[in-house]
Amino acid sequence: SGAMIRRTAILSIGGFPTETVTEDAHTSLKMQRLGWSTAYLREALAGGLATERLIFHIGQRMRGLRG
Asked: What sequence ranges are listed for the domain Glycosyltransferase 2-like (predicted)?
């Protein structure tokens, strides 16, 4: 996933969180608590790679669940 975030929004929450592996969700929640809004764009602005094997996908999902 990818995101475009205003620098002032990141600075207002003290920068990117480093205490979690789900920093994307953590960042969004902290910003919304301070009144920043988010929007979903139905346009591909970034690309990435998918896991090649099911076991790698499961490991990735487990890390995300631990937060």
From this structure: 1-45
